[in-house]
Amino acid sequence: MTNYLSRRQLLQQSACGFGALAMQGLLASESQGAAEVVGKAGPLVPKRPHFAASAKRVIFLFMHGGVSHVDSFDPKPSLTERNGEPLPFAKPKFEFAPTGNLLASPWKFRPYGESGIEVSDLFPNIGKCIDDITVIRSMNGGDQVSHGPALLNINTGSGVFARPCLGAWTLYGLGSPNQNLPGFISLSPSLYHGGSQNYGSAFLPATYQGTRLGDGGTDFKEAKLSSLTPGDAPALQRLQLDLLKRRNERHFESVEASSALQARMESFEMAFRMQAEAPVVMDIGRETKATHAAYGVGVEPTDEFARQCLMARRLAEAGVRFVQVNFSYPRNYWDAHGGLRQNHSTNAAKVDLPISALLKDLKSRGLLSDTLVVFATEFGRTPAAQGTDGRDHHPHAFSFWLAGGGVKGGTTYGATDEFGYYVAENKVTVPDFHATVLHLLGIDHERLTFRHAGRDHRLTDVHGNVVKEIVDT
After folding, report:
1. pLDDT at 93
2. What is the SS3 string spanning the chain?
3. pTM of the prediction?
4. CATH 3.40.720.10 region(s) of the chain?
């Protein structure tokens, strides 16, 4: 039988072992960025933030397809007044497809709350929560006019390169309060347009990647974590896992260090711990009928997304650090190239009530003050028409909103021009947005780095400024 040498063994056994010494020096340099998170205590133990945090956790509501800002959170009376007229200035150089004349919004905007912020009739229930919300009306996604790069840009900071997502960076920086549950869970993510990269860890240790529950192609009621049923003999199962752990650790020491192998070792232990707690946390049947009714569970068209929002609240309450809640392709999709009225009306009816119930539920439980809720989409839609009743992709100006977690409720930040085509005031780039989210979590985005391929990487790369005007200091 032939015995093959690993690269590590070859370096140790040849040339008096000097190759191994050189390799150890290189590995030490490569691991400086992760020195705080790798050790005997485990990579997911809670870590101190860089400074006092406003938010302890994040619920990230992602609307796949591109929600039209001029039909939702950025009212433009000029679109109504000049409906059907040509745009009086040049259109962007980067467009996904040709567009025609200006198109008025089919929905009216109304003021809500004490703040009087205008929200369209698409979101009356979210409008009632507006005094807890900061609307950013000046988001800019650069030139990412296609879904895939735009999704990756929002989630990872790059539409081109494989980069860790926001949730993975958060888990890497802060660890997780509950060691019996994954620290980062993605509910019903789309397997299209970037796929698992939208909740992946890329070059960060694989331990920090999101745990997927369901996918965008199947009903969320069917979403389950497999193999979590405790065996008949827990003590025997513990002995088996201890044996497996020793074998894996021995293998880990004999071969070149592997992030994937380390993550696999951690996953066995996590799965064992999850067997008791996860089924309880994930059982939304334990909630009252009144809670189900408030979210819209069990009735259409809200049932599926209501289950996700209610699950997100239960996970956040149980100590999960970062929860993605995805309104995902192909079952749900905001991509209104045509049939704008039907597309946005249908989709808003699915999410408006569940999202408002989530905000109210968190607030009633005292969780909203330290839970950052984000409503995001990959880009907006053109104020000019595509065809007769559609809007095209528009990364040049669009809207996000944030609630809880230390943001100023009942405020707006930034502005677009009179038609919603370009940012006119206080542009917020994707790195700015990421820097602000990390800031609310107590993390300095310039200090959260990881050494990879000879350089220190960070979520915001070499960009990003905290939008301090929306932070409730």
Report:
1. 84
2. CCCCCCHHHHHHHCHHHHHHHHHHHHHHHHCHHHCCCCCCCCCCCCCCCCCCCCCCEEEEEEECCCCCHHHCCCCCHHHHHCCCCCCCCCCCCCCCCCCCCECCCCCCEEEECCCCEEEECCCHHHHCCHHHEEEEEEEECCCCCCHHHHHHHHHHCCCCCCCCCHHHHHHHHHCCCCCCCCCEEEECCCCCCCHHHHHCCCCCCHHHCCEEECCCCCCHHHCCCCCCCCCCCHHHHHHHHHHHHHHHHHHHHHCCCCHHHHHHHHHHHHHHHHHHHHHHHCCHHHCCHHHHHHHCCCCCCCHHHHHHHHHHHHHHHCCCCEEEEEECCCCCCCCCCCCHHHHHHHHHHHHHHHHHHHHHHHHHCCCHHHEEEEEEECCEEEEEEECCCEEEEECCCEEEEEECCCECCCEEECEECCCCCCEEECCEEHHHHHHHHHHHCCCCCCCCCEEECCEEECCCCCCCCCCHHHECC
3. 0.87
4. 41-221+287-470
